[in-house]
Design a protein that fits this description.
The complex is a heterodimer of chains A (273) and B (329). With 273 residues, chain A is an alpha/beta fold. Chain A has ten helices and 13 strands. Chain A has helices at residues 2-15, 31-47, 60-69, 83-93, 122-130, 156-164, 181-190, 222-226, 246-256, 258-267; strands at residues 24-29, 52-56, 74-77, 98-106, 108-111, 119-121, 147-151, 176-178, 194-198, 207-208, 210-213, 216-218, 233-240. In chain A, the strands form three sheets. A five-stranded mixed beta sheet of chain A has the order 2-1-3-13-4. In chain A, strands 8-7-9-5-10 form a five-stranded mixed beta sheet, covered by helices on one side. A three-stranded mixed beta sheet of chain A has the order 6-11-12. In chain A, strand 11 (210-213) and strand 12 form a beta hairpin. In chain A, helix 2 (31-47) packs across helix 10 (258-267) and helix 3 packs parallel to helix 4 (83-93). Chain A is globular, with a radius of gyration of 19 Å. By secondary structure, chain B is an all-alpha fold. Chain B has 14 helices and two strands, in the order H-H-H-H-E-E-H-H-H-H-H-H-H-H-H-H. Chain B has helices at 2-10, 16-59, 61-66, 69-73, 99-130, 133-147, 151-170, 178-202, 206-214, 219-230, 232-248, 251-256, 274-281, 290-324; strands at residues 87-88, 95-96. A two-stranded antiparallel sheet of chain B has the order 1-2. In chain B, helix 5 (99-130) runs parallel beside helix 8. The longest helix of chain B is centred in the N-terminal third of the chain and has 44 residues, at 16-59. Classes of the chains: A alpha/beta (273), B mainly alpha (329). The A-B interface holds A 1, 3-7, 9-10, 14, 58-62, 65, 68-69, 82, 84-85, 88, 145, 147, 152-155, 158-159, 162, 168, 170-171, 173-179, 183, 187, 190-191, 193 and B 82-83, 86, 88-92, 95, 100, 152, 155-156, 159, 163-164, 173-176, 250-251, 254-255, 258-263, 269-270, 272, 278-289.
Chain lengths: 273, 329
Protein backbone atom coordinates (compact mmCIF):
# COMPACT_ATOMS: atom_id res chain seq x y z
CA UNK A 1 0.00 0.00 0.00
CA UNK A 2 2.76 2.35 0.98
CA UNK A 3 4.86 1.43 -1.99
CA UNK A 4 1.90 2.26 -4.16
CA UNK A 5 1.64 5.64 -2.52
CA UNK A 6 5.32 6.09 -3.11
CA UNK A 7 4.98 5.45 -6.78
CA UNK A 8 2.06 7.85 -6.84
CA UNK A 9 4.14 10.48 -5.14
CA UNK A 10 6.89 9.97 -7.69
CA UNK A 11 4.41 10.29 -10.53
CA UNK A 12 3.19 13.55 -9.05
CA UNK A 13 6.76 14.69 -8.55
CA UNK A 14 7.56 14.02 -12.16
CA UNK A 15 4.47 15.80 -13.35
CA UNK A 16 4.74 18.90 -11.21
CA UNK A 17 7.41 21.48 -11.72
CA UNK A 18 8.77 23.09 -8.61
CA UNK A 19 6.10 24.88 -6.69
CA UNK A 20 7.39 26.45 -3.54
CA UNK A 21 5.14 29.14 -2.18
CA UNK A 22 6.10 31.82 0.24
CA UNK A 23 5.05 31.03 3.79
CA UNK A 24 4.96 27.29 3.20
CA UNK A 25 7.71 24.94 4.11
CA UNK A 26 7.64 21.46 2.62
CA UNK A 27 9.23 18.56 4.44
CA UNK A 28 9.22 15.23 2.67
CA UNK A 29 10.76 11.79 2.86
CA UNK A 30 11.39 8.94 5.28
CA UNK A 31 8.33 7.13 6.53
CA UNK A 32 10.17 6.39 9.75
CA UNK A 33 10.35 10.13 10.35
CA UNK A 34 6.89 11.20 9.23
CA UNK A 35 5.33 10.97 12.70
CA UNK A 36 8.22 12.93 14.11
CA UNK A 37 8.10 15.57 11.39
CA UNK A 38 4.39 16.01 11.90
CA UNK A 39 4.74 16.50 15.64
CA UNK A 40 7.42 19.10 15.08
CA UNK A 41 5.30 20.84 12.46
CA UNK A 42 2.26 20.96 14.73
CA UNK A 43 4.12 22.50 17.63
CA UNK A 44 6.08 24.79 15.35
CA UNK A 45 2.96 26.16 13.68
CA UNK A 46 1.37 26.90 17.05
CA UNK A 47 4.18 29.38 17.60
CA UNK A 48 4.71 30.62 14.04
CA UNK A 49 1.22 31.02 12.69
CA UNK A 50 2.45 32.71 9.53
CA UNK A 51 4.39 29.64 8.36
CA UNK A 52 2.70 26.52 7.08
CA UNK A 53 4.75 23.35 7.33
CA UNK A 54 3.67 20.48 5.11
CA UNK A 55 5.04 17.08 6.08
CA UNK A 56 4.68 14.09 3.79
CA UNK A 57 6.23 10.63 3.70
CA UNK A 58 7.02 8.36 0.81
CA UNK A 59 10.41 7.04 1.86
CA UNK A 60 13.88 8.48 2.25
CA UNK A 61 14.57 8.13 -1.45
CA UNK A 62 11.40 9.98 -2.34
CA UNK A 63 12.41 12.86 -0.11
CA UNK A 64 15.91 13.02 -1.53
CA UNK A 65 14.60 12.81 -5.09
CA UNK A 66 12.25 15.69 -4.28
CA UNK A 67 15.21 17.66 -3.01
CA UNK A 68 16.97 17.08 -6.31
CA UNK A 69 13.90 18.02 -8.28
CA UNK A 70 13.36 21.14 -6.24
CA UNK A 71 9.93 20.11 -4.99
CA UNK A 72 10.78 20.16 -1.31
CA UNK A 73 12.90 22.41 0.87
CA UNK A 74 13.74 19.80 3.48
CA UNK A 75 14.15 16.09 2.83
CA UNK A 76 13.83 13.69 5.74
CA UNK A 77 16.04 10.65 5.44
CA UNK A 78 16.74 7.69 7.66
CA UNK A 79 19.96 7.00 5.76
CA UNK A 80 22.88 9.02 4.48
CA UNK A 81 22.68 10.45 1.01
CA UNK A 82 24.08 8.12 -1.65
CA UNK A 83 26.93 9.24 -3.89
CA UNK A 84 24.70 9.16 -6.95
CA UNK A 85 22.26 11.48 -5.22
CA UNK A 86 25.01 13.89 -4.18
CA UNK A 87 26.24 13.87 -7.75
CA UNK A 88 22.79 14.87 -8.95
CA UNK A 89 22.66 17.79 -6.53
CA UNK A 90 26.08 18.91 -7.67
CA UNK A 91 25.22 18.91 -11.35
CA UNK A 92 21.87 20.60 -10.85
CA UNK A 93 22.46 23.12 -8.11
CA UNK A 94 26.22 23.08 -7.73
CA UNK A 95 25.95 22.21 -4.04
CA UNK A 96 26.62 19.05 -2.11
CA UNK A 97 23.68 19.62 0.19
CA UNK A 98 23.59 20.15 3.93
CA UNK A 99 23.15 17.22 6.28
CA UNK A 100 21.66 17.81 9.71
CA UNK A 101 21.17 14.89 12.15
CA UNK A 102 17.95 15.67 14.01
CA UNK A 103 17.25 12.47 15.95
CA UNK A 104 18.57 9.00 16.64
CA UNK A 105 16.91 5.66 16.14
CA UNK A 106 17.97 2.19 17.19
CA UNK A 107 17.31 -0.34 14.46
CA UNK A 108 15.77 -3.24 16.30
CA UNK A 109 15.38 -6.88 15.37
CA UNK A 110 12.09 -8.47 16.33
CA UNK A 111 11.14 -12.06 16.92
CA UNK A 112 7.85 -13.62 17.86
CA UNK A 113 6.95 -13.61 21.54
CA UNK A 114 6.99 -17.42 21.52
CA UNK A 115 10.66 -17.45 20.51
CA UNK A 116 12.88 -18.46 23.46
CA UNK A 117 15.87 -16.42 22.25
CA UNK A 118 16.39 -12.99 23.80
CA UNK A 119 19.67 -11.81 22.35
CA UNK A 120 21.82 -12.46 19.29
CA UNK A 121 25.17 -11.15 18.18
CA UNK A 122 25.47 -9.00 15.09
CA UNK A 123 27.36 -11.89 13.44
CA UNK A 124 24.46 -14.25 14.11
CA UNK A 125 21.99 -11.75 12.67
CA UNK A 126 24.24 -11.41 9.65
CA UNK A 127 24.30 -15.21 9.28
CA UNK A 128 20.51 -15.30 9.32
CA UNK A 129 20.03 -12.47 6.88
CA UNK A 130 22.60 -13.58 4.29
CA UNK A 131 21.19 -17.11 4.44
CA UNK A 132 24.01 -19.01 6.15
CA UNK A 133 21.93 -19.78 9.25
CA UNK A 134 18.59 -21.25 8.24
CA UNK A 135 17.32 -23.02 11.34
CA UNK A 136 16.67 -21.69 14.85
CA UNK A 137 18.35 -24.83 16.16
CA UNK A 138 21.71 -23.45 15.00
CA UNK A 139 21.23 -20.57 17.45
CA UNK A 140 19.99 -22.67 20.35
CA UNK A 141 16.30 -22.27 19.58
CA UNK A 142 13.61 -24.69 18.45
CA UNK A 143 14.15 -26.97 15.44
CA UNK A 144 12.30 -24.86 12.90
CA UNK A 145 13.23 -23.03 9.71
CA UNK A 146 13.85 -19.30 10.09
CA UNK A 147 11.37 -17.16 8.20
CA UNK A 148 13.13 -13.92 7.28
CA UNK A 149 11.25 -10.68 6.87
CA UNK A 150 12.94 -7.64 5.41
CA UNK A 151 11.93 -4.24 4.13
CA UNK A 152 11.57 -3.27 0.49
CA UNK A 153 14.78 -1.87 -0.96
CA UNK A 154 12.94 1.45 -1.11
CA UNK A 155 13.52 1.73 2.62
CA UNK A 156 16.35 3.53 4.36
CA UNK A 157 16.24 0.89 7.07
CA UNK A 158 16.90 -1.79 4.44
CA UNK A 159 20.05 0.02 3.38
CA UNK A 160 21.12 0.58 6.98
CA UNK A 161 20.82 -3.10 7.87
CA UNK A 162 22.58 -4.07 4.65
CA UNK A 163 25.51 -1.76 5.43
CA UNK A 164 25.80 -2.24 9.19
CA UNK A 165 24.67 -5.81 9.76
CA UNK A 166 25.29 -7.58 6.46
CA UNK A 167 28.58 -5.79 5.73
CA UNK A 168 27.20 -4.87 2.33
CA UNK A 169 26.41 -8.46 1.37
CA UNK A 170 23.15 -9.33 -0.32
CA UNK A 171 20.11 -10.43 1.62
CA UNK A 172 19.29 -14.14 1.38
CA UNK A 173 17.08 -14.94 -1.59
CA UNK A 174 14.44 -16.30 0.75
CA UNK A 175 14.15 -12.99 2.62
CA UNK A 176 10.60 -11.79 2.15
CA UNK A 177 10.14 -8.09 1.77
CA UNK A 178 7.19 -6.21 3.14
CA UNK A 179 6.07 -2.65 2.56
CA UNK A 180 6.51 -0.81 5.83
CA UNK A 181 7.73 -1.58 9.33
CA UNK A 182 4.18 -1.98 10.58
CA UNK A 183 3.71 -4.83 8.11
CA UNK A 184 6.92 -6.47 9.33
CA UNK A 185 5.80 -6.20 12.96
CA UNK A 186 2.41 -7.64 12.09
CA UNK A 187 3.99 -10.54 10.18
CA UNK A 188 6.43 -11.35 12.97
CA UNK A 189 3.69 -11.23 15.59
CA UNK A 190 1.73 -13.81 13.58
CA UNK A 191 4.47 -16.21 12.47
CA UNK A 192 6.31 -17.80 15.36
CA UNK A 193 9.48 -18.80 13.48
CA UNK A 194 10.08 -15.42 11.93
CA UNK A 195 12.47 -12.55 12.41
CA UNK A 196 12.18 -8.98 11.19
CA UNK A 197 13.59 -5.53 11.79
CA UNK A 198 12.59 -1.90 11.94
CA UNK A 199 12.75 1.29 13.93
CA UNK A 200 12.41 1.12 17.70
CA UNK A 201 9.31 3.31 17.73
CA UNK A 202 7.24 0.62 16.08
CA UNK A 203 8.21 -2.30 18.24
CA UNK A 204 4.91 -3.18 19.89
CA UNK A 205 3.43 -6.64 20.38
CA UNK A 206 6.58 -8.59 19.61
CA UNK A 207 9.86 -9.29 21.33
CA UNK A 208 12.77 -6.96 20.71
CA UNK A 209 16.04 -8.79 20.46
CA UNK A 210 18.96 -7.49 22.46
CA UNK A 211 22.30 -7.32 20.76
CA UNK A 212 25.00 -9.43 22.33
CA UNK A 213 28.41 -7.76 22.49
CA UNK A 214 30.95 -9.89 24.33
CA UNK A 215 29.13 -11.00 27.45
CA UNK A 216 26.83 -8.05 27.52
CA UNK A 217 23.30 -7.99 26.14
CA UNK A 218 22.38 -4.51 25.06
CA UNK A 219 18.78 -3.46 24.56
CA UNK A 220 17.86 -0.57 22.25
CA UNK A 221 17.04 1.83 25.08
CA UNK A 222 17.50 5.57 25.26
CA UNK A 223 20.46 5.31 27.64
CA UNK A 224 22.27 2.71 25.56
CA UNK A 225 21.73 4.62 22.34
CA UNK A 226 22.68 7.96 23.85
CA UNK A 227 25.82 6.43 25.36
CA UNK A 228 26.71 4.96 21.97
CA UNK A 229 26.60 1.43 23.37
CA UNK A 230 23.86 0.01 21.18
CA UNK A 231 25.65 -1.05 17.99
CA UNK A 232 22.78 -0.52 15.58
CA UNK A 233 21.92 3.08 16.31
CA UNK A 234 21.48 5.35 13.35
CA UNK A 235 20.95 9.02 12.80
CA UNK A 236 17.83 10.45 11.25
CA UNK A 237 18.60 13.38 9.01
CA UNK A 238 17.26 16.50 7.48
CA UNK A 239 18.80 17.30 4.12
CA UNK A 240 18.74 20.69 2.43
CA UNK A 241 20.19 21.93 -0.83
CA UNK A 242 22.04 24.81 0.83
CA UNK A 243 22.73 26.05 4.33
CA UNK A 244 19.39 26.52 6.07
CA UNK A 245 17.99 30.04 5.95
CA UNK A 246 14.72 31.82 6.59
CA UNK A 247 11.77 29.65 7.55
CA UNK A 248 13.68 26.42 7.09
CA UNK A 249 16.29 27.62 9.56
CA UNK A 250 13.70 28.58 12.19
CA UNK A 251 12.03 25.20 11.79
CA UNK A 252 15.28 23.25 12.11
CA UNK A 253 16.35 25.36 15.08
CA UNK A 254 13.05 24.47 16.71
CA UNK A 255 13.53 20.76 15.98
CA UNK A 256 16.96 20.84 17.59
CA UNK A 257 15.85 22.93 20.59
CA UNK A 258 15.27 21.19 23.94
CA UNK A 259 11.54 21.39 23.27
CA UNK A 260 11.90 19.82 19.82
CA UNK A 261 14.15 17.08 21.15
CA UNK A 262 11.65 16.36 23.94
CA UNK A 263 9.12 15.63 21.20
CA UNK A 264 11.58 13.12 19.71
CA UNK A 265 11.50 11.16 22.95
CA UNK A 266 7.72 11.42 23.09
CA UNK A 267 7.37 9.92 19.62
CA UNK A 268 9.63 7.03 20.59
CA UNK A 269 12.96 7.93 19.05
CA UNK A 270 16.04 9.28 20.75
CA UNK A 271 17.43 12.82 20.96
CA UNK A 272 20.65 13.71 19.16
CA UNK A 273 21.91 15.79 22.05
CA UNK B 1 -15.65 19.91 -61.73
CA UNK B 2 -18.59 20.10 -64.04
CA UNK B 3 -20.25 17.20 -62.34
CA UNK B 4 -19.90 18.92 -58.99
CA UNK B 5 -21.55 21.99 -60.40
CA UNK B 6 -24.51 20.10 -61.78
CA UNK B 7 -24.90 18.27 -58.51
CA UNK B 8 -25.16 21.42 -56.48
CA UNK B 9 -27.42 22.91 -59.05
CA UNK B 10 -29.88 20.03 -58.78
CA UNK B 11 -29.57 19.32 -55.07
CA UNK B 12 -32.86 19.95 -53.35
CA UNK B 13 -32.78 23.02 -51.17
CA UNK B 14 -32.59 22.03 -47.52
CA UNK B 15 -34.95 23.50 -45.03
CA UNK B 16 -33.22 25.48 -42.24
CA UNK B 17 -34.12 22.81 -39.66
CA UNK B 18 -32.67 20.03 -41.77
CA UNK B 19 -29.51 21.99 -42.37
CA UNK B 20 -29.15 22.66 -38.67
CA UNK B 21 -29.58 19.02 -37.94
CA UNK B 22 -26.99 18.15 -40.54
CA UNK B 23 -24.55 20.58 -38.95
CA UNK B 24 -25.19 19.17 -35.52
CA UNK B 25 -24.60 15.65 -36.79
CA UNK B 26 -21.29 16.74 -38.24
CA UNK B 27 -20.27 18.47 -35.03
CA UNK B 28 -21.06 15.38 -32.96
CA UNK B 29 -19.21 13.11 -35.37
CA UNK B 30 -16.24 15.46 -35.25
CA UNK B 31 -16.31 15.50 -31.47
CA UNK B 32 -16.36 11.71 -31.27
CA UNK B 33 -13.48 11.44 -33.73
CA UNK B 34 -11.52 14.00 -31.74
CA UNK B 35 -12.08 12.04 -28.53
CA UNK B 36 -11.01 8.80 -30.18
CA UNK B 37 -7.83 10.32 -31.54
CA UNK B 38 -7.04 11.98 -28.22
CA UNK B 39 -7.33 8.61 -26.55
CA UNK B 40 -5.09 6.95 -29.11
CA UNK B 41 -2.58 9.79 -28.89
CA UNK B 42 -2.46 9.53 -25.10
CA UNK B 43 -1.84 5.81 -25.38
CA UNK B 44 0.97 6.29 -27.87
CA UNK B 45 2.52 8.99 -25.69
CA UNK B 46 2.50 6.67 -22.68
CA UNK B 47 4.21 3.94 -24.67
CA UNK B 48 6.75 6.40 -26.04
CA UNK B 49 7.42 7.81 -22.55
CA UNK B 50 7.92 4.39 -20.98
CA UNK B 51 10.11 3.19 -23.84
CA UNK B 52 12.14 6.40 -23.78
CA UNK B 53 12.93 6.04 -20.08
CA UNK B 54 13.92 2.41 -20.64
CA UNK B 55 16.08 3.32 -23.63
CA UNK B 56 18.88 4.63 -21.39
CA UNK B 57 19.70 0.99 -20.67
CA UNK B 58 20.94 0.68 -24.24
CA UNK B 59 22.37 4.14 -24.86
CA UNK B 60 24.05 5.05 -21.58
CA UNK B 61 27.39 3.23 -21.20
CA UNK B 62 27.21 3.17 -17.39
CA UNK B 63 23.73 1.66 -17.48
CA UNK B 64 24.75 -0.77 -20.20
CA UNK B 65 27.54 -1.97 -17.98
CA UNK B 66 25.39 -2.30 -14.88
CA UNK B 67 22.37 -3.86 -16.52
CA UNK B 68 23.43 -5.59 -19.70
CA UNK B 69 21.26 -8.26 -21.29
CA UNK B 70 23.56 -11.00 -20.07
CA UNK B 71 23.18 -9.70 -16.51
CA UNK B 72 19.43 -9.58 -16.92
CA UNK B 73 18.87 -12.99 -18.42
CA UNK B 74 21.92 -15.23 -17.92
CA UNK B 75 23.41 -16.88 -14.85
CA UNK B 76 26.08 -14.76 -13.19
CA UNK B 77 29.41 -15.72 -11.70
CA UNK B 78 28.86 -15.92 -7.97
CA UNK B 79 30.75 -17.23 -4.95
CA UNK B 80 29.89 -20.87 -4.22
CA UNK B 81 26.66 -21.33 -2.33
CA UNK B 82 25.08 -18.11 -3.62
CA UNK B 83 22.31 -18.21 -6.21
CA UNK B 84 23.31 -17.10 -9.74
CA UNK B 85 20.05 -15.30 -10.49
CA UNK B 86 19.30 -12.42 -8.14
CA UNK B 87 17.24 -9.26 -8.25
CA UNK B 88 19.20 -6.99 -5.89
CA UNK B 89 19.53 -3.74 -7.81
CA UNK B 90 20.61 -1.68 -4.79
CA UNK B 91 23.42 -4.06 -3.97
CA UNK B 92 27.06 -2.92 -3.87
CA UNK B 93 27.40 -4.89 -7.09
CA UNK B 94 23.90 -4.51 -8.53
CA UNK B 95 22.28 -7.79 -9.54
CA UNK B 96 19.52 -7.33 -12.03
CA UNK B 97 18.41 -10.79 -13.12
CA UNK B 98 14.88 -10.78 -14.52
CA UNK B 99 14.55 -14.54 -14.15
CA UNK B 100 13.23 -14.55 -10.53
CA UNK B 101 10.72 -11.90 -11.55
CA UNK B 102 9.54 -13.98 -14.52
CA UNK B 103 9.23 -17.07 -12.35
CA UNK B 104 7.31 -15.14 -9.70
CA UNK B 105 4.97 -13.54 -12.21
CA UNK B 106 4.36 -16.88 -13.91
CA UNK B 107 3.66 -18.64 -10.62
CA UNK B 108 1.13 -16.14 -9.34
CA UNK B 109 -0.53 -15.68 -12.72
CA UNK B 110 -0.86 -19.41 -13.40
CA UNK B 111 -2.35 -20.09 -9.96
CA UNK B 112 -4.85 -17.30 -10.36
CA UNK B 113 -5.86 -18.39 -13.87
CA UNK B 114 -6.22 -22.04 -12.82
CA UNK B 115 -8.63 -20.95 -10.12
CA UNK B 116 -10.40 -18.08 -11.84
CA UNK B 117 -11.05 -19.51 -15.32
CA UNK B 118 -13.12 -22.54 -14.25
CA UNK B 119 -14.89 -20.56 -11.54
CA UNK B 120 -15.67 -17.64 -13.82
CA UNK B 121 -16.67 -19.63 -16.90
CA UNK B 122 -18.74 -22.26 -15.11
CA UNK B 123 -20.30 -19.61 -12.94
CA UNK B 124 -21.27 -17.72 -16.06
CA UNK B 125 -22.60 -20.92 -17.69
CA UNK B 126 -24.70 -21.59 -14.63
CA UNK B 127 -26.03 -18.05 -14.51
CA UNK B 128 -26.82 -17.95 -18.22
CA UNK B 129 -28.25 -21.44 -18.69
CA UNK B 130 -29.43 -23.02 -15.49
CA UNK B 131 -30.13 -20.42 -12.86
CA UNK B 132 -33.74 -19.44 -12.33
CA UNK B 133 -34.45 -15.94 -13.60
CA UNK B 134 -34.72 -14.30 -10.18
CA UNK B 135 -31.45 -15.85 -9.08
CA UNK B 136 -29.66 -14.64 -12.19
CA UNK B 137 -30.98 -11.16 -11.64
CA UNK B 138 -29.43 -11.25 -8.20
CA UNK B 139 -26.22 -13.06 -9.13
CA UNK B 140 -25.06 -10.80 -11.89
CA UNK B 141 -25.11 -7.44 -10.11
CA UNK B 142 -23.58 -8.99 -7.00
CA UNK B 143 -20.62 -10.37 -8.93
CA UNK B 144 -20.27 -7.14 -10.87
CA UNK B 145 -20.12 -5.38 -7.53
CA UNK B 146 -17.26 -7.68 -6.57
CA UNK B 147 -15.38 -6.46 -9.64
CA UNK B 148 -15.52 -2.98 -8.18
CA UNK B 149 -13.66 -3.82 -4.96
CA UNK B 150 -10.33 -1.97 -4.99
CA UNK B 151 -7.39 -4.33 -5.21
CA UNK B 152 -5.83 -2.83 -2.08
CA UNK B 153 -8.79 -4.14 -0.14
CA UNK B 154 -8.41 -7.59 -1.68
CA UNK B 155 -4.69 -7.53 -0.94
CA UNK B 156 -5.37 -6.54 2.65
CA UNK B 157 -7.93 -9.31 2.95
CA UNK B 158 -5.41 -11.83 1.59
CA UNK B 159 -2.71 -10.57 3.93
CA UNK B 160 -4.74 -10.44 7.12
CA UNK B 161 -7.35 -13.17 6.73
CA UNK B 162 -6.42 -15.65 4.02
CA UNK B 163 -2.72 -15.96 4.88
CA UNK B 164 -3.12 -18.09 8.01
CA UNK B 165 -5.91 -20.17 6.46
CA UNK B 166 -3.87 -20.94 3.33
CA UNK B 167 -0.75 -21.67 5.35
CA UNK B 168 -2.53 -24.17 7.60
CA UNK B 169 -4.48 -25.70 4.74
CA UNK B 170 -1.43 -26.49 2.59
CA UNK B 171 1.09 -26.86 5.46
CA UNK B 172 3.35 -24.16 4.04
CA UNK B 173 6.35 -22.79 5.94
CA UNK B 174 5.62 -19.17 5.24
CA UNK B 175 2.33 -17.33 5.42
CA UNK B 176 3.10 -15.12 2.42
CA UNK B 177 3.61 -17.19 -0.71
CA UNK B 178 2.83 -17.56 -4.39
CA UNK B 179 -0.30 -19.58 -3.67
CA UNK B 180 -1.76 -16.86 -1.47
CA UNK B 181 -0.96 -14.18 -4.02
CA UNK B 182 -2.50 -16.31 -6.78
CA UNK B 183 -5.68 -16.89 -4.78
CA UNK B 184 -5.89 -13.19 -3.95
CA UNK B 185 -5.49 -12.39 -7.63
CA UNK B 186 -8.21 -14.89 -8.48
CA UNK B 187 -10.61 -12.87 -6.32
CA UNK B 188 -9.94 -9.91 -8.58
CA UNK B 189 -10.20 -11.83 -11.84
CA UNK B 190 -13.23 -14.07 -11.31
CA UNK B 191 -15.71 -11.17 -11.63
CA UNK B 192 -14.02 -10.00 -14.83
CA UNK B 193 -14.17 -13.44 -16.45
CA UNK B 194 -17.66 -14.05 -15.12
CA UNK B 195 -19.28 -10.90 -16.44
CA UNK B 196 -17.69 -10.97 -19.88
CA UNK B 197 -18.40 -14.71 -20.29
CA UNK B 198 -21.96 -14.25 -19.15
CA UNK B 199 -22.51 -11.55 -21.75
CA UNK B 200 -21.07 -13.83 -24.42
CA UNK B 201 -23.25 -16.75 -23.36
CA UNK B 202 -26.50 -14.79 -23.18
CA UNK B 203 -25.92 -13.29 -26.60
CA UNK B 204 -25.91 -16.73 -28.24
CA UNK B 205 -29.13 -16.70 -30.33
CA UNK B 206 -32.16 -18.42 -28.80
CA UNK B 207 -32.65 -20.38 -32.00
CA UNK B 208 -29.47 -22.37 -31.31
CA UNK B 209 -30.82 -23.59 -28.00
CA UNK B 210 -34.27 -24.28 -29.37
CA UNK B 211 -32.83 -26.21 -32.30
CA UNK B 212 -30.70 -28.29 -29.99
CA UNK B 213 -33.52 -29.01 -27.57
CA UNK B 214 -35.84 -29.84 -30.48
CA UNK B 215 -33.32 -32.43 -31.66
CA UNK B 216 -33.72 -34.12 -28.30
CA UNK B 217 -30.58 -32.87 -26.52
CA UNK B 218 -30.83 -32.38 -22.77
CA UNK B 219 -30.41 -28.87 -21.34
CA UNK B 220 -26.94 -29.87 -20.11
CA UNK B 221 -25.92 -31.14 -23.58
CA UNK B 222 -27.28 -27.97 -25.09
CA UNK B 223 -25.33 -25.79 -22.71
CA UNK B 224 -22.09 -27.75 -23.01
CA UNK B 225 -22.04 -28.67 -26.70
CA UNK B 226 -23.97 -25.85 -28.34
CA UNK B 227 -24.06 -22.67 -26.27
CA UNK B 228 -20.53 -22.87 -24.85
CA UNK B 229 -18.79 -23.45 -28.20
CA UNK B 230 -20.92 -20.77 -29.83
CA UNK B 231 -19.78 -18.31 -27.16
CA UNK B 232 -16.16 -19.50 -27.29
CA UNK B 233 -14.68 -16.32 -28.80
CA UNK B 234 -16.32 -14.18 -26.13
CA UNK B 235 -15.20 -16.53 -23.38
CA UNK B 236 -11.67 -16.52 -24.70
CA UNK B 237 -11.76 -12.73 -24.71
CA UNK B 238 -12.88 -12.89 -21.08
CA UNK B 239 -9.95 -15.13 -20.20
CA UNK B 240 -7.47 -12.88 -21.99
CA UNK B 241 -8.89 -9.90 -20.15
CA UNK B 242 -8.52 -11.81 -16.89
CA UNK B 243 -4.95 -12.76 -17.77
CA UNK B 244 -4.10 -9.16 -18.55
CA UNK B 245 -5.44 -8.14 -15.17
CA UNK B 246 -3.57 -10.97 -13.43
CA UNK B 247 -0.22 -10.12 -14.95
CA UNK B 248 -0.59 -6.40 -14.40
CA UNK B 249 -2.29 -6.47 -11.01
CA UNK B 250 0.13 -5.03 -8.51
CA UNK B 251 -1.32 -4.34 -5.09
CA UNK B 252 -2.50 -7.84 -4.27
CA UNK B 253 0.78 -9.45 -5.28
CA UNK B 254 2.78 -6.79 -3.50
CA UNK B 255 0.94 -7.42 -0.26
CA UNK B 256 0.49 -11.17 -0.36
CA UNK B 257 3.42 -12.74 -2.19
CA UNK B 258 6.29 -11.96 0.21
CA UNK B 259 8.29 -10.44 -2.66
CA UNK B 260 11.40 -12.59 -2.26
CA UNK B 261 13.47 -13.01 -5.41
CA UNK B 262 13.67 -16.79 -5.17
CA UNK B 263 13.58 -19.18 -8.08
CA UNK B 264 11.52 -22.21 -7.19
CA UNK B 265 8.41 -23.86 -8.53
CA UNK B 266 7.01 -24.50 -5.09
CA UNK B 267 3.82 -22.57 -4.49
CA UNK B 268 4.69 -22.41 -0.80
CA UNK B 269 7.68 -20.18 -1.51
CA UNK B 270 7.50 -16.46 -1.88
CA UNK B 271 7.41 -14.89 -5.31
CA UNK B 272 8.37 -11.50 -6.64
CA UNK B 273 6.40 -10.36 -9.66
CA UNK B 274 7.29 -7.84 -12.37
CA UNK B 275 4.51 -5.41 -11.58
CA UNK B 276 5.00 -5.50 -7.82
CA UNK B 277 8.69 -4.81 -8.32
CA UNK B 278 7.91 -1.61 -10.18
CA UNK B 279 5.50 -0.48 -7.49
CA UNK B 280 7.82 -1.35 -4.63
CA UNK B 281 10.94 0.26 -6.01
CA UNK B 282 9.79 3.25 -8.03
CA UNK B 283 9.54 5.28 -4.85
CA UNK B 284 13.16 5.03 -3.84
CA UNK B 285 15.03 4.85 -7.06
CA UNK B 286 17.41 7.66 -8.04
CA UNK B 287 15.73 9.25 -11.06
CA UNK B 288 17.72 8.60 -14.22
CA UNK B 289 19.86 5.84 -12.70
CA UNK B 290 20.21 2.41 -14.34
CA UNK B 291 17.83 1.02 -11.72
CA UNK B 292 15.25 3.61 -12.75
CA UNK B 293 15.59 2.64 -16.41
CA UNK B 294 15.35 -1.01 -15.45
CA UNK B 295 11.97 -0.46 -13.83
CA UNK B 296 10.71 1.16 -17.01
CA UNK B 297 12.17 -1.71 -18.98
CA UNK B 298 10.08 -4.07 -16.83
CA UNK B 299 7.08 -1.96 -17.79
CA UNK B 300 7.93 -2.42 -21.45
CA UNK B 301 8.15 -6.17 -20.94
CA UNK B 302 4.76 -6.29 -19.25
CA UNK B 303 3.33 -4.35 -22.16
CA UNK B 304 4.91 -6.71 -24.68
CA UNK B 305 3.60 -9.79 -22.84
CA UNK B 306 0.00 -8.64 -22.80
CA UNK B 307 0.27 -7.41 -26.38
CA UNK B 308 1.59 -10.75 -27.65
CA UNK B 309 -1.04 -12.64 -25.71
CA UNK B 310 -3.81 -10.47 -27.12
CA UNK B 311 -2.43 -11.04 -30.61
CA UNK B 312 -2.40 -14.83 -30.18
CA UNK B 313 -5.87 -14.80 -28.65
CA UNK B 314 -7.38 -12.70 -31.40
CA UNK B 315 -5.96 -14.90 -34.19
CA UNK B 316 -7.24 -17.96 -32.37
CA UNK B 317 -10.65 -16.37 -31.92
CA UNK B 318 -10.83 -15.68 -35.63
CA UNK B 319 -10.04 -19.30 -36.37
CA UNK B 320 -12.75 -20.50 -33.97
CA UNK B 321 -15.29 -18.17 -35.52
CA UNK B 322 -14.37 -19.40 -39.00
CA UNK B 323 -14.75 -23.01 -37.89
CA UNK B 324 -18.10 -22.36 -36.24
CA UNK B 325 -19.56 -20.49 -39.18
CA UNK B 326 -18.15 -22.97 -41.72
CA UNK B 327 -15.80 -20.42 -43.24
CA UNK B 328 -18.63 -18.09 -44.20
CA UNK B 329 -17.43 -15.18 -42.08
Amino acid sequence: MKAFLQSLVVAVLLALPLAAQAGTLTVKGSDTMVILGQRWAEEFMKKNASTKVQVTGGGSGVGLAALQNGTTEIAMSSREMKDAEKQKLRTRYNTTGTEIPVAKDGVTFYVNEANPLNALTVEQLRGIYVGDITNWKQLGGADAPIIIYSRENSSGTYVFVKDHVLDGEDYAASAQTLPGTAAVVNAVSKEKNSIGYGGAAYAKGIKELKIKVGNEEIAPTAENIKAGKYPLARDLYFYLRNKPSGEAKTFIDFALSPEGQALVTKVGYFPVK
Amino acid sequence: MEQGLTQTAFAPALSPTARRRQLREKAIAGFITLMAFTGIAALILIIVFVAKEALALFTDPAARHEASFSKMFLAQDVPPGRPPFRWQPVSRIPKVSMIPLFVGTLKTTVVSMLVAVPLGVFGALFAAEFAPRRMRELLKPVIELLAGIPSVVLGFFALMVMSTVVKDLFHFDRPLNAMLAGLGLALAIVPVIFTVSEDALTSVPRSYREASLALGATPWETAWKVVLPAAAPGILAACVLGFGRAIGETMIVLMASGNADVISWSLGDSARSLSATIAAEMGEVVVGSPHYSLLFFIGVQLFVFTFVLNLIASTWTKRVVRKLTGGAA
